[in-house]
């Protein structure tokens, strides 16, 4: 697969899942795939933790870690992403545990593309035609395993609780932090709105200090029923 085609999807997955440790999703997916050759295709629901009310503890770092733990426990979600910068694109990403993704992308030239990932299978739709690609996207992901572990949090600075706000019509607690990619990389400033009722992220805004992408806004949807199946060959 052409790296120029692959790159936007890697960026999308990294951005959408980064706040919950992308590499843990990939590692969990591989483990589940090895133990069973089948994957859940039914609409999924969050675990019990996702329904527990969230209250700031007075330790912003611990609060973000708790949010990440609840997000990782989810069995499905949709993330709607809007970017700005030299390279811009809008996309919807669907996820069903343990290893199913659908990514629909709108590019600046008016074209659109779609990708389905199921375990180590990759399907790409360009135009009206689906193709199975000889590539495992998981092995090409940036290493974000340590993003929200104690080691990974070393790359976060100035984690702050900002206060109570409303995000997409929902009561939320707003946090802000400065950061950079683990191991050193693009620096950014982020704000994340965490739902009072369930401790899950409602939306996230990241402003990048370097690189072609200047900002990314993500809105999370946990209510839409999702199914992700291998596409029918054209």
Please give a handful of descriptors for the protein shown.
globular; alpha+beta; 234 residues
What does this entry look like structurally?
A hairpin with a 3-residue loop joins β2 (90-96) and β3. The chain has three helices and eleven strands. The chain is globular. It has an eleven-stranded antiparallel beta sheet with strand order 6-5-4-3-2-1-11-10-9-8-7, covered by helices on one side. Helices cover 18% and strands 39% of the residues. The longest helix is centred in the N-terminal third of the chain and has 15 residues, at 3-17. It is α+β, with helices and mostly antiparallel strands.
SSE layout and pairing:
Elements: H1 3-17, H2 22-35, H3 60-72, E1 76-85, E2 90-96, E3 100-106, E4 112-118, E5 121-126, E6 129-133, E7 156-167, E8 170-180, E9 187-195, E10 201-208, E11 213-221
Antiparallel strand pairs: 1-2, 1-11, 2-3, 3-4, 4-5, 5-6, 7-8, 8-9, 9-10, 10-11
Estimated share of beta-strand residues = 35-45%
**SS summary, helix count:** 3
Helix/strand order? HHHEEEEEEEEEEE
Instruction: Report the C-alpha radius of gyration, rounded.
Output: 17 Å
Oligomer: single chain
pLDDT < 50 runs, ≥5 residues = 1-11, 16-48, 141-148
* Helical percentage: 10-25%
| Physical arrangement of strands within the biggest beta sheet | 6-5-4-3-2-1-11-10-9-8-7
Which structural class should the secondary elements be placed in? alpha+beta
User: pLDDT average, as an integer?
Assistant: 74
Number of E-type strands: 11
Largest sheet: 11 strands, antiparallel
C-alpha end-to-end distance: 19 Å
Give the overall shape, derived from the CA principal axes. Answer: globular
